[in-house]
Design a protein that fits this description.
alpha+beta; 5-stranded antiparallel beta sheet; 5 helices; 34% helix
């Protein structure tokens, strides 16, 4: 994370437990609120955090709560950058995993839309994964301040 233009940042780590997914959403939403996002922007950001964290817990750690999910958030000007990482099992075939409706856990009735949602709700979305070493999802979104809309 750059230091010259840095407006603000946060780092958060928590156990890979499904009950921590809502905590992660609220923490990121609270951090981002300083940019005065619209309700739609806030909803989009909470959704992508939920998708990425859930993927880490279910797919990365196979619901093993001994795993750790890390969220890094950085605000530079009106740009929010989120990095959500796990040190779990990683993704064997990233291109296949990014296909809409693909899921490696059909028995859990998962929709297979996580990556598609992240890509559609954010301005940028990059996934890096290595089998046996984990997955990192970096997403960026420019926030159109509500203040600017009313002036």
């Amino acid at each position: 994370m750059s230091s010259e233009q840095l407006s603000n940042f946060m780092n958060l780590q928590f156990a890979a437990k499904s009950e921590n997914e809502s905590f992660a959403r609220v923490a990121v939403a609270s951090f981002i609120s300083q940019l005065d996002p619209t309700m739609d922007e806030l909803s989009d950001l909470k959704t992508v955090v939920s998708e990425a964290v859930t993927n880490s817990i279910i797919h990365g750690y196979n619901n093993d709560s001994a795993g750790v999910v890390t969220i890094k958030a950085e605000i530079i000007g009106d740009m929010i950058t989120l990095v959500i990482e796990d040190q779990g099992q990683g993704i064997e075939d990233l291109e296949l995993a990014k296909q809409p409706l693909y899921t490696s856990k059909p028995e859990l009735e998962r929709s297979g839309m996580g990556f598609t949602i992240m890509e559609n709700f954010m301005d940028e979305c990059e996934v890096v994964s290595e089998p046996g070493r984990g997955t990192s999802i970096m997403m960026k979104k420019r926030i159109e301040s509500k203040k600017a809309l009313y002036n």
